[in-house]
Amino acid sequence: MERAAQGADGGGGSNSSSRSSSRATSAGSSPSCSLAGRGVSSRSAVAGFGGGGSRSSPGSVAASPSGGGGRRREPALEGVLSKYTNLLQGWQNRYFVLDFEAGILQYFVNEQSKHQKPRGALSLSGAIVSLSDEAPHMLVVYSANGEMYKLRAADAKEKQFWVTQLRACAKYHMETSSKMMNQVEGQQKNLVHAIESLPGSGPLTALDQDLLLLKATSAATLSCLGECLHLLQQSVQQVGQPSHKPGASENILGWHGPKSHSTEQLKNGTLGSLPSASANITWAILPNSAEDEQSLPPEPEPNSGPELVLSEDEKSDTEDKEETELGVMEDQRSIILHLISQLKLGMDLTKVVLPTFILEKRSLLEMYADFMAHPDLLLAITAGATPEERVICFVEYYLTAFHEGRKGALAKKPYNPIIGETFHCSWEVPKDRVKPKRTSPHSPAGHEQLTAEDPSKSYKLRFVAEQVSHHPPISCFYCECKEKRLCVNTHVWTKSKFMGMSVGVSMIGEGVLRLLEHGEEYVFTLPSAYARSILTIPWVELGGKVSISCAKTGYSATVIFHTKPFYGGKVHRVTAEVKHNPTNTIVCKAHGEWNGTLEFTYNSGETRVIDTTTLPVYPKKIRPLEKQGPMESRNLWQEVTRYLRLGDIDAATEQKRRPEEKQRVEEQKQENLHTPWQPKYFIQEGDGWVYFNPLWKAH
């Protein structure tokens, strides 16, 4: 629609010197009536417009809300505003019509064409109308669907008149939506009550699969609608902030927590049974905060400390990384529907035991290691000649790290690590491969697997991860390269929440990249993960705003993982901006897909495209199972993995149950002895965790 409008705007519409008027009209109504009840003021404004000396005079804002003949009629505000089209055509006068009753702002080439098809239209329900100092007398209308109109009025008086009425229209339709939500909530509650009142046996029971699916879908839809409404309400409230300028992430794309009226009822359990999607959580980024009741490891040795992991024992990883798609098989569907039918609203999701067939054949701790599959880009950060180049290199590495760790689009869930579980591996990176991305040759076509033939000509990057806490579930990982004097220390715990047809998982915590040669520390956060379409075939996306900052150099970066809009739009989008804060200078921008192509634009005007699907992958080196300890991830879960590969779900479930049951017994023993758990490799410092022998303390 906007594209068509821009094409039309390039034609012979009215220009900035044309005479125009802005007025509110209503058929068959008294000019003295007003919309005071709606918060829309009746006023006049006369001023020159666009420097052309033309008049812009809002006439009577007419029409009684009750209507002269018993029929409700609402006026339409209409008149000329200048609309920004594009860089080439700039600002052009267009004739705008505000239909208050329909809640739509339309525009036409000129007044004579207003009875034809509009050139463009915006729905104002939940829209943000804000002032802007980008141009004189400018206002911006942000629609809830992501569209935006940049408009200019004749003067400040005219601008305020339009802003007042546009905001009043948006507020009215928001309140109407709230009333409708209350009605929908009551109807959904009646539906759930009717289903649960059915007998336990007979031709139609409360456990009928179609009824379970209906109950699940209705609750999920209600929750999504409630969150949409809450986000729209937040947007309207933000309009009152004088300096508010909505950014790329301030639209309907995100999830801001269950705070709307409808979802508060869901949270408090006032709508009956919850067909919770947590019973079908199948994401591959993060697990639920605790998949089962997992406890302490079996009989740890007294005063057991860090174990020496010999690098000469490590071999290149040959594990099959392919995952078969879940699909929607009938027996699996029955298990999931039966499970979600047993859950009640407000139930602690950490108590839910997930079916084994949704599991991915690796632990969460190993998944963190897989995010390091491009160690050449990580080590190249230290090769940057300036602080600016180093922070840009880190952003390039950060944006390319998620693709390989995700292992494609399949929505499966890694094993939840049990407390005391560890994972060790390393990478050998040829020294001639470690150089800043901006100066390195183009990536080879295809997904190249690289190995170092001569260890003396390679850098060694070591990695260790450990599950240090059960409640909350905290994972820590540390990696270092002594030759490059670089290390990363990260702690993160996951928190999941039900979002209707999706499950969102927040990654709480932070990581710190230290470049000891330069004395720089880069603090970074991690995005959230979302499992979408959980009642059909799940898929995963990342979302949220993350930050990267270096206090010493004053450089910072903001990275936004955009979730897919409700209507249209691309999936897996990401944008980033690198800034030098002391001078407020943007030195680099990036956009693209985190699992596809990324384009970087530098302040020099240079651009570079990185295709994450063709970046060389360095296989991690790991010791064979016979040389691993009993609490190392692959050894710990080897039988579960074996039976999953064979497709024997029952045997995999039994193998998964045994260590978990043993842990429950051990946990009870620890509680009786009042003995706190002591991790092997990480020490708690304040709210965070650090490696026991980090590189910055050893040097």
TrEMBL record:
<keyword id="KW-0445">Lipid transport</keyword>
<keyword id="KW-0597">Phosphoprotein</keyword>
<dbReference type="InterPro" id="IPR037239">
    <property type="entry name" value="OSBP_sf"/>
</dbReference>
<dbReference type="GO" id="GO:0006629">
    <property type="term" value="P:lipid metabolic process"/>
</dbReference>
<dbReference type="InterPro" id="IPR011993">
    <property type="entry name" value="PH-like_dom_sf"/>
</dbReference>
<dbReference type="GO" id="GO:0005856">
    <property type="term" value="C:cytoskeleton"/>
</dbReference>
<dbReference type="Pfam" id="PF15409">
    <property type="entry name" value="PH_8"/>
</dbReference>
<keyword id="KW-0488">Methylation</keyword>
<feature type="region of interest" description="Disordered">
    <location>
        <begin position="651"/>
        <end position="672"/>
    </location>
</feature>
<keyword id="KW-0446">Lipid-binding</keyword>
<keyword id="KW-0963">Cytoplasm</keyword>
<feature type="region of interest" description="Disordered">
    <location>
        <begin position="291"/>
        <end position="325"/>
    </location>
</feature>
<dbReference type="Pfam" id="PF01237">
    <property type="entry name" value="Oxysterol_BP"/>
</dbReference>
<dbReference type="InterPro" id="IPR018494">
    <property type="entry name" value="Oxysterol-bd_CS"/>
</dbReference>
<feature type="region of interest" description="Disordered">
    <location>
        <begin position="433"/>
        <end position="454"/>
    </location>
</feature>
<feature type="region of interest" description="Disordered">
    <location>
        <begin position="240"/>
        <end position="271"/>
    </location>
</feature>
<keyword id="KW-0444">Lipid biosynthesis</keyword>
<dbReference type="GO" id="GO:0016020">
    <property type="term" value="C:membrane"/>
</dbReference>
<comment type="similarity">
    <text>Belongs to the OSBP family.</text>
</comment>
<keyword id="KW-0206">Cytoskeleton</keyword>
<dbReference type="InterPro" id="IPR001849">
    <property type="entry name" value="PH_domain"/>
</dbReference>
<comment type="subunit">
    <text>Interacts with OSBPL9. Interacts with DIAPH1.</text>
</comment>
<feature type="compositionally biased region" description="Low complexity">
    <location>
        <begin position="15"/>
        <end position="47"/>
    </location>
</feature>
<feature type="compositionally biased region" description="Low complexity">
    <location>
        <begin position="55"/>
        <end position="65"/>
    </location>
</feature>
<protein>
    <recommendedName>
        <fullName>Oxysterol-binding protein</fullName>
    </recommendedName>
</protein>
<feature type="domain" description="PH">
    <location>
        <begin position="74"/>
        <end position="171"/>
    </location>
</feature>
<comment type="function">
    <text>Probable lipid transporter involved in lipid countertransport between the endoplasmic reticulum and the plasma membrane. Its ability to bind phosphatidylserine, suggests that it specifically exchanges phosphatidylserine with phosphatidylinositol 4-phosphate (PI4P), delivering phosphatidylserine to the plasma membrane in exchange for PI4P. Plays a role in negative regulation of lipid biosynthesis. Negatively regulates APOB secretion from hepatocytes. Binds cholesterol and acidic phospholipids. Also binds 25-hydroxycholesterol. Binds phosphatidylserine.</text>
</comment>
<dbReference type="InterPro" id="IPR041680">
    <property type="entry name" value="PH_8"/>
</dbReference>
<keyword id="KW-0443">Lipid metabolism</keyword>
<dbReference type="GO" id="GO:0015485">
    <property type="term" value="F:cholesterol binding"/>
</dbReference>
<feature type="region of interest" description="Disordered">
    <location>
        <begin position="1"/>
        <end position="74"/>
    </location>
</feature>
<feature type="compositionally biased region" description="Acidic residues">
    <location>
        <begin position="310"/>
        <end position="325"/>
    </location>
</feature>
<dbReference type="GO" id="GO:0005829">
    <property type="term" value="C:cytosol"/>
</dbReference>
<keyword id="KW-0175">Coiled coil</keyword>
<dbReference type="GO" id="GO:0006869">
    <property type="term" value="P:lipid transport"/>
</dbReference>
<dbReference type="InterPro" id="IPR000648">
    <property type="entry name" value="Oxysterol-bd"/>
</dbReference>
<keyword id="KW-0813">Transport</keyword>
